[in-house]
Amino acid sequence: MVNTSFRITNSLKKIVYYSIFFCSFQVTFSQDTGKSSAEIRGTITVPKNNEVIEDLYHKRALNRYAKHHGGVNKTPKPYSLSEQCVIYIESAPQYSSSSERQRRAELDQSDLMFRPLVLPVLVGTTVDFPNRDELYHNVFSYSSVKEFDLGRYPKNQVKSVTFDKAGTVQVFCDIHTYMFATILVLDNPWFTTPSEDGSYVLSNVPPGTYQISVWYLRKKVDTKTVTVKENQALVVNFEL
Ligand SMILES: [Cu+2]
Q1: Residue 168 CA to ligand 1 centre (angstroms)
Q2: Which DSSP string corresponds to the chain?
């Protein structure tokens, strides 16, 4: 009898120990990966008139060299909202380097335009700049975050740049002066682009108080201070 009750007590102890072990393991694991059930979601409403894009199309159509190469006879595919807009947290606590964010991205040159118009990347990302046009492009930036000049290169050639410092990089083409794009090099993985209906979700955000910003076309257009709690789905809408 004594033996049996001893065995039961011992088994109970083991269960308690293992439970504590697994619980603490899960908490540690969840903190290490930056995983949290909190999220920030909402809708971004953009103005109907898009003067920046209209101006780009207009200047592109006037380009003599492009005309000569048949570049402007083709109507370019309009930019989707996800190619024009980025939502991101300005600065966030430490996150695990095992973040699922890709460290490779692409800024396309096609139909005499860069695609997307704004490209968000995590610091350390290498961006490929493929030329998909029947003519030469010359991608460059004088940005203090990363200065580069890729020189002239023809169709199907790809040149790459690694962005190892956070900040804003304005990208241009030396041949087609109206071509522009922005690379947002961000120091944390909590950024996203909206769907066509303007909705967005920032998932697995650690609880805390943040500045959340919206970049639209050529500049940062809004910043809000928000506090998100554990297990909360915080709604933050933007009207630009
Ligand atoms: Cu060009």
Answers
A1: 21
A2: -HHHHHHHHHHHHHHHHHHHHHHHHHHHHHHHTT--S-EEEEEEE--S--HHHHHHHHHHHH-HHHHHTTTTTSPPPPPPGGGTEEEEESS-----TT-S--SEEE-EEETTEEESSEEEEETTEEEEEEB-SSS-EEEEE--SS--EEEEEE-TT-EEEEEE-S-EEEEEEESSSTT-EEEEEEESSS-EE---TTSEEEE-SPPSEEEEEEEEETTEEEEEEEEEE-TT-EEE--EE-
pLDDT per position in the chain (240 positions), as tens? 445 454 545 554 554 444 444 434 333 333 444 455 799 999 999 998 889 988 988 888 787 766 666 555 566 788 999 999 999 999 877 666 555 677 999 999 998 999 999 999 999 999 999 999 988 999 999 999 999 999 999 999 999 999 999 999 999 999 999 999 999 999 999 999 999 999 999 999 999 999 999 999 999 999 999 999 999 999 999 999
CA of residue 191 to ligand 1 center, whole Å: 28
CA of 45 to the centre of ligand 1 (A): 31
**Cα of 180 from ligand 1 centre, angstroms:** 9
Q: What are the structural domain ranges in the chain? A: 1-32, 51-201
Measured in Å, residue 61 CA sits from the centre of ligand 1 at 13
179 alpha carbon – ligand 1 mean position (Å): 7
Model pTM? 0.82
Which fold is adopted by the domain 51-201?
A: Immunoglobulin-like (2.60.40)
Task: Report how far ligand 1's centroid is from the alpha carbon of 126 (Å).
Answer: 21
